[in-house]
Write a structure and sequence with these properties.
Order of helices and strands: HHHHHHHHHHHEEEHEEHEHHHHEHEEEHH
Shape: elongated
Strand content: 5-15%
Largest sheet: 6 strands, mixed
């Protein structure tokens, strides 16, 4: 059995890693350089404290070994106490300032991430799992915040301690120190090996975590279907499999990182034996000017070096996983919207004019074109209905009108102005939408209506609720929340909230996208009066599957496989006995059987 070749070892810091770190520094840390400098000064003070502790300890040992006085011993003890008071003060302020700086930076990063995410195209959200986005914005940024704050401050403190104490030990006994660091190349090799493994495995673990969170969200969102279909065990097994994969990858990361500490410990043991043996020889040999106090102090100094060195090595191992997370977070910034305002875009246009699709081409994927040369006119101030079989492109027309997607050929105009020459905000402000899938928040009905226009007055909100025939329910429920996604409301009540929102926006163009398809005919009839009031004086475009609901439309446009095959009034289309008439008769026979 042949083994697959291992991937080539990556450098400790690739060019992409350095670019990410530089980006994070320039955007979120550089403006706090003064605070970071203060932290560094306090860390340097801590390093000097350790060095002075060694010096005073050596003097104290000589006081003890060489028959010093009690007064001298008391002075040594007082000096050590003062040093540790200073160290304690630095140990209090360093993490406080470091955590404040990191939390502020991460807050700004999350703010910028959310702002950037809101500007991305709808297509990005349709191809990206929401669990992956949540993982980036919440979990990964939180981990980065802890790492760049407390963990990095501690690592800098450890590095400064190693440098200062090592410098002191070199000054005291360069021969013994040189012998002690013979093991350093081996430690560096281990760190490079571990870092390479951690970086690769951490990338797999972060991807799996995003899939895992998306799986949980999908299961929770579809819980009604899961319960009805009695698929609890299937969903539990699916999530258990994801949990197992995530566990295995996490254990792999931890096993890899766990190689660092034993390696450092064994190396430390070798060094201590070398220092004790070599130092003892220096004390016993008249060729060296070394005494017992000096060797004991040197050993204590090596402890002060190797303990922070162990922590620093552990930090460097974890650093690779954090670099992976930083790259995943920054990947969201690398996504750029393709639907933007043109340089010469305008805000003013004739919102009451005709909407014209002229030779429009569009496809969601290159190998499956939807529209090829589609042309149609939607009369301003009148009700136009777009009908057709599933997949014929009805809802896509609405998406193209509001520039959720851009056409790939031809153009769309409103009142003679191409929509790609309009500011996106101004274009979308001209539309009110009542769709089949209504976003309902776990808040009161009042707040759900107000959501689309937070600046609306109380009187305007009540008027919208009255027009949508939901005011009585608003009064009855008061401030009571409606449950996640409106779980405590019926389909008709949710639909009335959507209609009330449309009244509150009061936009000149109304889009009704399968607005009543999920309702029974009785509920649809009760809502119809509210819809009739809503369409008055507006350009209205209705996308409907149930043809009986659009019989009163001024014009009906019939799509089949992305082509406009018929158009006219309901009676005209029935009289032609074409595709529309066949659809209508088939639905009528189906309703009769029910």
């Amino acid at each position: 059995m042949t083994r697959s070749p291992r991937p080539p070892r990556q450098p400790l810091f690739s060019q992409r890693d350095r670019d990410n770190l530089l980006w994070f520094w320039q955007h979120y840390m550089k403006q706090r350089a003064r605070w970071l400098a203060l932290v560094l000064v306090m860390i340097l003070v801590q390093g000097v404290v350790y060095q002075q502790f060694l010096s005073i300890t050596e003097n104290g040992l000589r006081v003890i070994f060489e028959n010093g006085t009690l007064a001298e011993l008391a002075l040594v003890c007082l000096a050590v106490f003062v040093l540790f008071v200073v160290r304690g003060a630095m140990a209090y302020f360093v993490p406080r300032i470091a955590v404040w700086v990191s939390n502020t930076a991460i807050h700004e990063m999350r703010r910028d991430l959310i702002t950037h995410m809101m500007g991305l195209d709808l297509a990005y959200f349709e191809r990206t799992k929401s669990g992956d986005l949540i993982h980036r914005i919440v979990t990964q940024t939180q981990a980065l915040g802890h790492f760049i704050g407390l963990a990095t401050a501690n690592a800098v403190r450890d590095a400064v301690t190693v440098v200062i104490v090592s410098g002191y030990l070199i000054w005291k006994n360069p021969v013994l120190f040189t012998a002690a660091i013979l093991v350093l190349p081996f430690i560096i090799w281990v760190m490079n090996y571990v870092s390479d493994l951690v970086k690769r495995v951490q990338g797999e673990a972060e991807t799996e975590m995003g899939h895992y969170m998306s799986g949980i969200e999908e299961t929770v969102t579809a819980m009604r279907t899961v319960k009805i279909a009695s698929q609890e065990e299937v969903e539990a097994a699916r999530l258990e499999e994801s949990t197992r994969r995530l566990r295995d990858l996490t254990l792999h990361v931890q096993r890899t990182q766990a190689l660092v500490m034993p390696t450092i410990d064994l190396s430390s043991a070798f060094v201590y034996v070398l220092v004790i043996g070599g130092g003892g020889y220096m004390v016993l040999s008249p060729a060296f000017d070394t005494d017992g106090a000096g060797i004991i102090t040197f050993l204590l100094g090596m402890v002060l070096v190797f303990d922070p060195a162990r922590l620093l090595a552990q930090y460097l191992g974890i650093l690779q996983s954090q670099i992976v997370q930083l790259d995943r977070v920054r990947n969201l910034y690398r996504e750029t919207p393709s639907i933007t305002d043109a340089p010469d875009a305008v805000s003013e246009f004739d919102t009451g004019g005709d909407i014209v699709l002229d030779n429009v081409s569009f496809s969601y994927s290159a190998d499956q074109p939807l529209f090829e040369g589609l042309s149609m006119r939607l009369d301003g101030g009148r009700v136009s209905a777009i009908v057709g079989a599933t997949g014929s492109g009805k809802t896509t027309v609405l998406s193209l009108l509001s520039r959720l997607y851009d056409v790939q050929g031809g153009r769309i105009t409103i009142g003679g102005t191409p929509i790609d020459k309009l500011r996106i905000r101004s274009l979308r402000a001209a539309f009110s939408v009542v769709a089949q899938d209504i976003v309902i928040f776990n808040n009161s009905i009042w707040e759900n209506i107000r959501y689309v226009n937070p600046e609306a007055t109380e009187a305007q909100i009540w008027q919208a609720a009255e027009n949508a025939e939901i005011a009585d329910l608003v009064r009855a429920r008061g401030a009571a929340p409606v449950g996640p996604k409106g779980a405590q409301l019926s389909g008709g009540q949710k639909q009335r909230i959507a209609i009330a929102r449309a009244f509150l926006v009061d936009a000149p163009i109304l889009l009704l996208d399968e607005a009543t398809s999920a309702l029974d005919q009785g509920t649809e009839a009760r809502i119809k009066s509210a819809l009739t009031r809503l369409t008055e004086g507006r350009t209205t475009i209705v996308v409907a599957h149930r043809l009986s609901s659009i019989a009163d439309a001024d014009r009906i446009l019939v799509l089949e496989a992305g082509r406009l095959v018929e158009q006219g009034s309901h009676d005209e289309l029935l009289a032609r006995n074409g595709y529309y008439a066949q659809l209508y008769k088939a639905q009528k026979q189906g309703d009769a059987k029910v």
